[in-house]
Design brief:
Number of helices: 34
Number of strands: 13
Shape: globular
Helix content: 40-55%
Distance between the termini: 59 Å
Radius of gyration: 33 Å
Strand order of the largest sheet: 9-8-7-10-11
Number of domains: 5
Structural class: alpha+beta
Amino acid sequence: MERFFKRKSTFEDSSSQGSHKVSSTRPRIEVNIDELEVDPAKRKSIYEYHINDRDIVRRRYLQMGPCQPKNHVFPTRVITGVNRRFNPKWFKDHSNWLEYSVSKDAAYCLCCYLFKDESSRLQAGAESFVTEGFNNWKKGPERLRAHVGNHNSVHARNVQACRDLMTQEQQLEQTEQDYRVRLTSSVKCIRFLLRQGLAFRGNDESYDSLNRGNFLETLKFLADNNEDVAKVVMRNALENHQMTSPCIQKDIANAIASETTEIIINDLGGELFGIIVDESRDISVKEQMIVFIRYVDSSGHIIERLLGSTHVRDTTSMSLKVAIENLLTRHGLSFSRIRGQGYDGASNMRGEFNGLRTLIMNENPSAFYVHCFAHQLQLALVGVAKENDDVGDFFVTFSQLCNIVCASCKRRDNLQYKQLKMLTDSISTDTIETGTYLNQEAVLQCPGDTRWGSHYGALVSIVKLFSPVIDILDEIRQDPKQRLEAFRVLKNVLCFDFVFFLHLMKDVLGITNDLSHALQKKDQNIVNAMRLVDVSKKRLQMMREDGWEALLQEVSLFCNKHAIPIPNLDEVYVVPGRPRHKVEEKTHLHRYRVERFYVVLDLQLQELNNRFNEKNIELLLCVACFDPRNSFARFDKDKLVRLAQFYPNDFSDIELELLDNQLQTYFVDVTSDPAFSKLDGIDELAQKMVETGRHLDYTLVYLLLKLSLILPVATASVERTFSAMKLIKTFLRNRMSDDLLHYCLVSYVEKDIFDQVSNEAILHRFQKMREHRGVLPCSSSYTLNLGSVPDDEDDEFSRVGSPNLHLDLPEQSDQPH
């Protein structure tokens, strides 16, 4: 047939009225509605999308609502000799359509962007709210009212088109009640699986399959135990309306994550916040960036919440900044509200010249960077110790020992058997204490530079399993293939040097082990972290002054137990391979005590002092003046006023003078009140101020206290999310999409918020994501007034997306509003 009739190559979109033509041969690019550009100045034209995707994109933008960063610090420009800026009150007057672009400092119209056509040129200035952006703030109110126009204006017709899109009539083949039961059942199953971090799909989801996946198996279990559900789901529903397809499962997960995030954003409100960011590879070797926000809630508690995860294809600092900015903008947040940054110390994040922290501070100087305390501790105690040649050689031998002993399952089982035999012999000879929870099975841990406290746990495990490990090495020496390697490791292990450094580093890392655990708390604050660091410094200093004899005795007992020769410490040490007359004579005691014990501890103390006294030390010392312990003994008014000067956007010159007087009154008040006498940290101080209502009496002091609490201490929350990512996206589920991973992470990590999300909210958000065959009846709590329509009739439709989304049409009038 095509030989006689030429196939038509183009078709015309009726909505474009002849000005936008789309080629039918153009390849259709799949649109990810969760990655749509939020900033109105950066969006591509609605007609650049494929004709079959435009309504999907329009529906998604209407769900998200207008881009209205209400808490953004809007820049000023000189217009006709007067400094003028965008007025955030305009958002309230035009909340249904007005948008603001942070990048371009201009206003836009959401409805006109979605449904603009050729006729928009007939109205003067209409294009300025769609493509160019309006920024003549002098005439802002007049131009906004003129853009709205009367009931027959271009803007009014576009608003009507938005309403029509969201309230399309749909034909049902089942009753509304059956559809609600079917959809609710799917939502309940997805909720259960998300909370457990389980996968949805199986390899074969047909009815006769034995591996249909967790979702269908859970739905079947629910149907088997509920007759009402069994009547309308699975085989009892139409094949094309079962609400069980992978697309439906993903949309439900999307709705759940969106509702969870919305509760978090509402809880944040307009408060200032800090960000905690880290990146890690998932099982499919994709670089995933996790972003947390840290803020103080209305009751004075420190809150850290997962804002989202995103796949970053380029890990340069600029790419990370763009990704973070897009994520914040998507939730109506702005860089201008950030008051703290916390990273793990990677060069692309903490770099002083081109790092992520510098790029953000260039836009917002008040977004102070605090290096993750736990990573500083790890780098200080392990990394610096390895700079010593003897300690570095010890850790190399230690890593080789772990690799060769844990190289196979057979060796691991053999190690477990020898450990059991050792415990049995010790119990039979009554040389160890027995009782509940004593003598538990131990495993040989391998140290990791990125795992907090892993080196300490590894050293403790080798001390416990030293005898079984030596037996394993003796057996490996019988293997011709690994005989030499085992011999070399065994020779290095069975010497006094290895045992000495084993106990020395175990004691050094043990001193800071409690600090490592404390820094992994979500509600940790700067003052407590600094106090724990000071305690670690004091303990290291005490060990240097009085710990030599105890360490030497411990090492000697260990060597005698395992028949390891101990050198005579009073003898002269001979350097191997060097003539004695060219080397200064020194005893073994001097070598171990001065050149090893003192040198290692001095390096630790020096590094701790350097790392925790960087540029931000003045800021941290000022924050410490809020410490309520010992009747506010560290209170210093001048330092707290200096702290406020670090935040010029939050404290004006007049407010600084008021703060000076308010701090004096505050100090007299809290020191005379017994309720403040037993507080143990600035976090408890903030909570007590809210309980007693003093946060209303001393507003400036409480604001300064909140800014101190916002400063991040550690990236423990992000690290826990990476652990959850490994649970959700496993080797068998390595093809999970990035957006589905985001939905699962938000729901799994923020379980306490997830539990607050009602099924009704999920149903209505899901219903408005795309066109569905079924229709849910409107609920009173999820209806949205569309305003007056041309025929003076009111209309309502189910609320979805942003709570600020209103599609109000202007009243009938011949004059512009």
